[in-house]
Amino acid sequence: MYKILVVDDEPLIRTGVKHMIVNHGNKLFSEIEEASDGIDALDIIENFQPHLLITDIQMPEMNGLELIHEAKKKNVNHFVILSGYDEFDYAQKAIRLQVDDYLLKPINQTRLSEILSQTVSRLENKERLLNYNHSLKEIKEPDEKESVRKFKTFVRENYMNDISLSEVAEYMNLHPNYVCNLLKKEIDTTFVHYVHETRIKHAKQLLIDECNLQLSAIATRVGYENSRHFYKKFKQFVGQTPGNYRSEMKRKGEQI
Predict the structure, then answer these.
(1) Domain named Response regulatory: which ranges (predicted)?
(2) pTM of the model
């Protein structure tokens, strides 16, 4: 069963697309989630792990192409772009990002159904290929403790950069799916959660050590290109905003 995430800042568009997907009649799309912007979409992706992302191009905070760029790092591989205009420049960028298709609004039910059928075929072919490759050779299990150590080392040395699951898997010489299962089994976490946790840990230290460093600069230094995403993740992990955390640590320092 496959999952779809629909991202658009217009509620009527999201509702319409979801309705069309349901009417498509292919029961393989069992779950459909929605988000109103790119930042919220990234949070949903971490837990939902969609097989297909359908996103508008023009959205506040983060446009559709930026969202696709970030979603690729979280192991999302299939994308459809929605647009109200036949924008050649965006279409060219979408091709470079290896987007599956490009839909103009108002959305045509028949065209969307064709795209969904093509996506199912691609997903099924990929699964068959994976199963075939696994059947060709006996997979030798790597040393799991050593693999976790390598994973932690890679993240520690690269958390400030634009890293993805595929990159760390290549570094470890393992399949991305194996890395996901390994992290869950050995340290009860996910790739995305561990990267955020590492970034926030270093951000907390910078907030204390670099009192005059702007919050946006700290966000960039620990690997967040978008300040809002940084603030949201910081509050999620620490329970308060970066500014409040800095003020609290400053007060505690003065009391010593």
Answers:
(1) 3-120
(2) 0.70
